[in-house]
Each structure stands twice: as structure tokens, then as C-alpha cells.
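>> received
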Amino acid sequence: MGMDMEKKRVLSGMQPSGRLHLGNLLGALENWKKLQDEYDCFYFIADWHALSTSYEDTHEIKENIFNVAVDWLASGIDPEKSTIFLQSLISEHAVLHLLLSMITPVPWLERNPTYKEKQQEIKDRDLTTYGFLGYPILQAADIIIYKANCVPVGIDQLPHLELTREIVRRFHFIYKKEVFIEPESLISEVPKLPGLDNRKMSKSYGNAIFLSDPPDVVVKKVRTMITDPQRVKRSDPGNPEVCTVFTFHKLFSSAKEVAEVYTGCTTAGIGCTDCKLMMARNLNDYMMPIYEKRKELAGNPKKIDEIIHEGSKKAKKIAQQTLAEVNEVMGLLK
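>> returned
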């Protein structure tokens, strides 16, 4: 696939921390899939970023890289439309990260809202490392080395992107030449999908429905979902608005079924078990094409490896060109 110069370039990535779940699908992959037809999309598996918090235990990282790639492809990320690559195969990311770290003030990193939040949240690991403090610089390098015009982000990620923009401006101010593009945010409306227990869906909470879950496992998990805690008996009317299952109905069931469930719940005309089974059926219908495609892809690791390496070759050529420009502007040898 040749680069379409008329299209703006989009870049995004995910850490390979395990199998992807429904939250990843609705929160990112569905949007990535849509962007492919309008933008020149670069999507990378951020294995170096995974080391910023999981540097002590890396035995699953190869398997996780494979699973992330399979989940992406099964969800409709098309290697004919998008460049899919692996961060660690592009050493230029690390070199640009080093060069940018020379000009980035430490207070810029310390004020990053995620820095202290993660340290408080993750108590079982030592996050007082340079890699964790400096990961926003690596993130900036990831983006600007491809001269990405846009980055799809959620509202909570805007401070990270603004730091990238600040680093770009500082580089241009110091070296008196514009090499990079200041990336813009692409914010899309993302439906909020809770986990089985009504907390945020997360692997670490053990409340996720994975894209690789077979239909019977999906049904089993849905049966455990939190409903209206005030609805103790089958004959009690319920409040759908506080029910996790109803949130899923609004996303995966037809408008007619959503109306029926709402009425049935508020009048005690339908029980929670029947409500869950109806939703599980609709959810499985939605997930089945992804599940089937995933099974097919997972059985062909050679194909997955080829896609990652082909995409990485293309990405590397662009990264090399940008780094050559950086070296020239900074007065370094090529």
C-alpha cells in the first residue's frame, strides 16, 4: 500500500498487556476501523511502553504481542489500509526519545497527572524509575517521528498530547527549524462500557468480557453481572438505569428490545435471568464475526508475523527519514 499524500496521518498504539476486551473494542478499535477509510493510519503495538510498569515480569510479552495483533485484525484493522507495526522493531523511536529527553524539563514530566495517579494505584511495583517518569517523552517520539497530524484520544489523555505539542514547540524554538508537526487530537464520542461488576472494564479487575471468549463463556459471565441491588425478589419492580445489564442492552440490543426490557423491568414483568440471557444472545451475535475471524487468525501465526514485520519495514523507512532530519538540525552526524 503506497502512502496517500492527500490523506492526513493518524497514529495510535496499545500496550501488549494481554487479550483485548469489549471495552478496548468500543473505546478504540471501532473508531480505528472507521478512521482507516479517511486517514493514512499507523497503529503500533507499544511493547517498550509496557516495560514502563511491567519491567520485572516480561515472560508473557511475546504472547501478548501476538494476541493484540490477532484482536486488531479480527476487529477490522486492515493491513491493506493501515500500517500495523511493533514499536521495538523501530530503534529510531528510542534514539529520538533520547534526543528529546535532552531538552525536556523534568517539571514538565512531574506535573503529568498520570505520573502520581499510577504510583498510588499500582502499589505492588516500584515505579520510581526514569522509564516511568520519562515515558511521555517516548510517547512524543512515537507520534512525531511519523509526523502524525492527528492522534485519536479520550478526554483524559489530552494532557499527554499537549505535552507532545510542548516538546515539539521547544525543539523548534531551540534549533530554529520546524522538523515536526504539532499533532491535533481526534476526540470521538465513546460509549461507556462498564465491567461485569459495574466498575470500569479492566483485565486487572477480573470483570472483562474478552474478544476471544467463546459464546458459552460470554453467557456464563453475563449471568454474573450486577443488576439493580434493590430488586431482591422476582416480583419486585427494578430500576434499569442502575443496572449494568441494561447498559449493555442499550449498546447491543435493538431499540424495540430495549423498550421491552425497560418496561418489563420497571413493572416486574421480566426477571433478571431472562433479561441477562436476552442480552447475552444479542452480545454474542455482535461478537460472533470477530470471534470466528479471531479463531482463523490465531491458527496462522506465520501470517501475523508477516503482517507485523511488513508494517514495521514501512514504518522504519519513515522513522529513518525523520531522524536524519533531526540529526541534521541538531548538528549530529548522520
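>> The longest strand covers residues 9-14.
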